[in-house]
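Progress narrative, work stream C.
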Amino acid sequence: ASSIGCISPYHSPETLRSLKPNPKWDVYSFGVVLLELLTGKVVVSDELGPPVLAGLAVGLEDKTRVLRMADPAIRAELEGREEDLFACLKLGYNCISHVPQKRPTMKEALQVLEKIPTSSAPS
């Protein structure tokens, strides 16, 4: 099988068209990892493939539907903090936009994350 045209799911789609690296490529990779962490699913599997990501895109207005995509352990841990979880899922989705200009910068992504209060639970 030829590997021409095959890229890692952590690489942004435009890496096939351009040899010049762009900071938005890193934002895309960050979004993939963030969504994997939040959903408990690996993007290389069919579990978090295009249908799930498309469902997230279509349903960003439907917070209940989006929150159901999160790993049950994370949902339980963040019970009562659904807005924070939704903000993280939305950030992940925005980072994997197929339009690089629509992706946030890493600074903007950091600002979203910094607004989320940390848990005061003992470790």
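Work stream C, second folded protein:
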Amino acid sequence: MPRTPWGRRRTTDSPRPGGRRWAGRLRRGARRVLLVRVGRRRRSAAVLLPAGPDAQEGHNSRLDGSRLIVAADLDPRLLVPVSPAAALAQPAPPAAVPLLPGAHTRARRIRFLLVQLCTVGSLMLGMSAIFLSMYGEARWAAVCLVGCVSFDGLDGALARRFGVCSPFGAQMDSLADMCSFGIAAPVMVFTSIHRSAPGAVVAIACALVAVGAAIRLARFNVSPKDGRFFAGVPTTMAAAVLSLGILIGLRLPGPVAVGALAVLALAMVSSFPYAKLARIAKLPPWFWLPAVVGVFVDYRITFAVLAAAYLLSGPAVWLRRRAATASGR
């Protein structure tokens, strides 16, 4: 049997075919594919492209009509490899927001720490108010909440005074307010009045106050700030009213107390404009004369009247603005 020119045979004795021939269309299509050959000595790339009509004969031309182009003759931007992974690459994560924007000097860090200690102090007093309320010490819990109100006003004033306002401080202040004014205050009120009304009804009213405080704080964080009015009763003011009412021994009938809590919760989530303390302090002195006289007559009734007047001031200002807008049209 004659020896075949191939080193490897098939199972049959027939010689291996001389190779698979490409069809004419496949061969012409394969020539259009971009081929990059990396030379070992020149360390440069060569690209095999179909010769155009303006190609000169003998200039790197081949017998099959294509021409060899060195990488140096091409635009470098065309040699940048395109990978499918580059198109699917995820965007870079955003940079972390620093706790203290601006220069990190020792003095600014100390001031920033002092402001945060005031916020933490408010948080700790709020937790103490919860524990005291669980033991039935509603008045001592009210004292702690008054301290929370003081710290809440102090940390913001110090942050603006020292120039260390930051998003971190704003979030810390909101969380501390939720603990102190949104949770501790309703727990304190429940401990104080749960015997004067059905416990389930009082619990629902106190829960409404907590929900109203959460909505009020969340809306405050994402809403534009107004220098003159609050949108709804602020949680600090609501907690101050509840704490002072317990401290002075204000006794209201059970249904009245539950109704007042429900109204307070609705006032916190409302959009009625309530004046800030700085605006209230600018009122003329004669405006406060009846309040001063009322304190000496009956401070409990005077306090209740002032609290009710503040709650009603929001709808009154809203109606006044609406009437002014309607008349302006």
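The radius of gyration is 40 Å. No further action is required on this item.
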